[in-house]
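User: Show me an example of a complex going from sequences to structure tokens.

Assistant: Sure. Here are the input components:
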Amino acid sequence: MQKNTAHEIICAVRARAAARGINASFSLHREMSHLMRIGNNSVSLNTSENLTRLDIEVINGRRTGSHTQMGDVTTEEYVEKALQVAIDKAEVASPKDYQPISVVVEATVAENAQYDQTLEHLDPAFKADAYQQIIDNVGESYNFSGSWSSGSMELFLVSTANENTMHHLATDQDFNVVLKHPQKKWELRQWQSGWRLDHFDVDAVIDGFRQLLPTYENHDGCKLEPGEYRVALGSQALAEVLMMACYTGLFGRSYEEKQGWTAKSKLGDKILGENITLTDDPCEDKTFRFGFDMAGKVRGNFPLVKNGAMMNLMYDTMTAAKYGRQPTGHTGGSASVVMQPGSASPDMLEALKGMGKVIYIPALHYLNIPNPSQGVFTGSSRFNAVLIENGKVVSPIFSSRVTDSFQNVFGNVSLISSEAESVNLSNTYGRRSPEAASMPSYIVADKVKITDSADSF
Amino acid sequence: MSLSADLKKQILQNIDRITGKGAEYTDARYYTNDDSETLFLYDGNLEANDTNFESGLGVRVLFGGAWGFAATSDAKMTDACFDQALQNAITAAKLVRVPLHMSKKPGHTGHFASPLKQDPFTVPLKEKLDFLSAIDARLKEDWIFKRYVYAEFQKKNIFFFNSEGTEVERNLNNVFAKMMVMALDTDGQMQRRSQELFTTGKGTRGYEMLTQPELFSTHAERIKDELSQLINAEALEYGKRSVILLPGQGFLQVHETIGHPLELDRILGYELSYAGGSFVDLDSFGKLRYGSDKLSVSAFGSIENSPGSYGYDDEGTPERDYLLIDKGLLVNALSSRPMIAEANQKAGRTVFSESGGAARATAFYRAPIDRMTNVNILPGNDGTLEDIIASTKDGVVLDNPVSWSIGSNREHFHFSTEIAWEVKDGKKTRILRNPSYQGHTVEFYNSLSAVGDASTWRVWQVDNCGKGEPNQIMQLGHGIPVVRFDNVITGERK
């Protein structure tokens, strides 16, 4: 990654803007992204993107304007021009009925604890070789597809409030491979995540498929009738549902505006089961650690739910300003949600002995929220979902829809794995912004509502 | 904004250079500008007053049956970007079981510009804010808990070149807008009504589209009135009944359960690890009764003023107007050149005679994939909304999505909507809240029992269709009449 010059240019413009009495913040986002896609047992796309974005926000009294410019920052004139766009926008803007909170970089921070130069400059041939090994070892009669995103992201944040600077440099990768039976149509998936190249383990992928395949090759799938089931949610399904619960219930915006499922509760109230504890912990290594937010606030361990009780709400600066609250370090950037593990055996099948019929859903597809006020979510099972009876896998299940509430699912958790896993939640829309959660490898919840099921794979 | 002669020369020289190194095909897209502006008034406060300007180069190289792609926002890196794309293709070619090819096409030149009278980027910011503030003032009431109105303007100038000699310039403009009002119902739960800027399919799509009252602003009073009834309404009870979808909901039904499953790259398995597959396979074309004989669905539809009308796709192929579903029978897919070549090879016959002109990329830094253009249900012969209601014994009229969740192969779905109007014995009776419905795609479309005439047909704009890895947001449209489906599961089981 190119260093220093762009930072120095931005700091020089920042200093001049401060001298002119302009209230502005500047953030530089640089990414080196690589992604390999696999389809039909071939590399279907191999991409490299080197992109630089400069974001500038100006506050003029109660008026604000912001501008983003893509391109390399090589001259002060370039930054001055972008700054002027934001100044002009703020000048014309209608004033808010509250005072916006300025970006104040609380401390000078330089973090690169999750940076791996080897991963940043990874030769794509490494990825092609890994996929080749998987196909060769698991069997090329299956149809393999997948994607493997890796790269680095650098963020540099300053504001005219002071001379502090915040710098974040990190790498991340998100590996996926899907195996589909060409005739029977069932799909299996393996995924891995991490910030170092050696977090990827091709043998684990191959072993994962080998463990799953007999169940699928030797059993027909089964259709679940609508009803209430004991369900084991894998770490990925768990992260997906919990993140939805956080967005709709634990952010100050949804709470203040009575749009979410916690609207009628107050801090300290029980909103989930006694065995549910959630924190936002940017020090947790299983998440992609981000020590500051886009408002310049240093982030730390932030309890969200303790033993089922709502402890705190996450406020961005705009919501905090509007409702007279304090920002909590949740303006933009990536959260690091951690669910506290329990005491159940990491071996899920061992833990499920004697528990009768359990539906195991490792991941949920296309989750959405039909009723945020009631905390109702819906999504359907997809890869690797099976019916388990007394600790033994009985059969794969057809795509089955779960439509239930956060309160019901997380109010009826009977088992929580003692082992935590990192779940990659990044998307690659727009700019690279890695996000991960730390989740127990599974939970078991009772009386979960299955509302529909496909008729076949 | 025009492309400099020097940069054009450099791009063409690089295409020749890469071809000389053995590439089967090379194309380059240079965006001289990809600008957007977002204005968002929330409770009267201007929460977003943002502009975003991007420019850069994306290069795609086909070598040894595999694609390499590279992009840069730094014009100085043009030569290196071509080299990187070639190197990526060479690496990709090491793992090729099904070589990809481009069907051979002669080069051509072309130009397309979205029809517009007034470029939104030339309208003073204050004028745009005054327009939105006036709508905001109309939405404001003491009993309304939250309200917003926003507009988004997009402008892209794209120059396309390929190794076949094709050169295409496009100047694309989009205008999106939405307003919403929210209030607490008798149970203290938030209800909402909204309206998006839509089109009739005819006319221009500059700033003047936004300011046509009947397409947007005049709906402010209607959604307030409907919300005032909604907050005192009872919830929709679980049960099977007819559902009548207005275009504001029908567009998303079509988008999710016809548009996406008919993207050829999905059908061929290229989206399995992310967006999912499709219940449709190559044998389905010409055989699958996707819906009742009242269902005819087109791509593009020669709509003048939709974000799904773009002249040429990102492979330089002219956009085509053709049927996807003809009187219930599945006949075609949304496709690109490499995907039809692969599909025909895989099927061992000509399933698709030519590209659907649907290879689209969201930005210079993304490679094109098979996307929707405009996917439209053709108007039918069952009259107006009132006519369809009059012939309905037990049903609900539904409008505007709240949530949508679709099975990974698009074989089943669950939607919830903002509002329902109960229909009993041919009459609209009362408003119901918290409506939802679910079904299985083929069974659902085969229960299509009424399709409204052209007077009910509206083009709904979509500004946020997500697909692909790396992820891409795409803009498109859906021309939809009022439609009725029978025997549908509605509401939530107790």
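The lines above are the inputs; the final block is the predicted structure for all two components together. Residues 5-218 of chain A form a domain with the PmbA/TldD fold fold (CATH 3.30.2290.10).
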